[in-house]
Amino acid sequence: MITPKDVEHVALLSRLELDQQETGKFTGQLNAILEYVEVLKKVDTDGVEPTAHVLPLKNVLRQDAVRPSLPRDLALSNAPEQEDGYFKVPKIMEG
């Protein structure tokens, strides 16, 4: 069982300032969580495979297919500056 003193100690370690009302609220919430864990401990899980996720995960990928892209001239048409068919941008690193 978690006491208000425990909550105050964790708050101190976390550099949190809690008033009396918040300390009481968190004490109740943390004890409710621990009570629920006790309920979960009673659930029969024999024959249930351990999993990291409730639902099976899989990547949803599209087929990699060549498609027409934006023509270079059109892509560069609104560029403030361009050079040799590329966007020209300010240097960001000294080298």
Automatic annotation (TrEMBL):
<comment type="similarity">
    <text>Belongs to the GatC family.</text>
</comment>
<dbReference type="GO" id="GO:0070681">
    <property type="term" value="P:glutaminyl-tRNAGln biosynthesis via transamidation"/>
</dbReference>
<dbReference type="GO" id="GO:0050566">
    <property type="term" value="F:asparaginyl-tRNA synthase (glutamine-hydrolyzing) activity"/>
</dbReference>
<keyword id="KW-0067">ATP-binding</keyword>
<comment type="function">
    <text>Allows the formation of correctly charged Asn-tRNA(Asn) or Gln-tRNA(Gln) through the transamidation of misacylated Asp-tRNA(Asn) or Glu-tRNA(Gln) in organisms which lack either or both of asparaginyl-tRNA or glutaminyl-tRNA synthetases. The reaction takes place in the presence of glutamine and ATP through an activated phospho-Asp-tRNA(Asn) or phospho-Glu-tRNA(Gln).</text>
</comment>
<dbReference type="GO" id="GO:0016740">
    <property type="term" value="F:transferase activity"/>
</dbReference>
<dbReference type="GO" id="GO:0006450">
    <property type="term" value="P:regulation of translational fidelity"/>
</dbReference>
<comment type="subunit">
    <text>Heterotrimer of A, B and C subunits.</text>
</comment>
<keyword id="KW-0808">Transferase</keyword>
<protein>
    <recommendedName>
        <fullName>Aspartyl/glutamyl-tRNA(Asn/Gln) amidotransferase subunit C</fullName>
        <ecNumber>6.3.5.-</ecNumber>
    </recommendedName>
</protein>
<keyword id="KW-0436">Ligase</keyword>
<dbReference type="GO" id="GO:0006412">
    <property type="term" value="P:translation"/>
</dbReference>
<dbReference type="Pfam" id="PF02686">
    <property type="entry name" value="GatC"/>
</dbReference>
<dbReference type="InterPro" id="IPR003837">
    <property type="entry name" value="GatC"/>
</dbReference>
<keyword id="KW-0648">Protein biosynthesis</keyword>
<dbReference type="GO" id="GO:0005524">
    <property type="term" value="F:ATP binding"/>
</dbReference>
<dbReference type="GO" id="GO:0050567">
    <property type="term" value="F:glutaminyl-tRNA synthase (glutamine-hydrolyzing) activity"/>
</dbReference>
<dbReference type="InterPro" id="IPR036113">
    <property type="entry name" value="Asp/Glu-ADT_sf_sub_c"/>
</dbReference>
<keyword id="KW-0547">Nucleotide-binding</keyword>
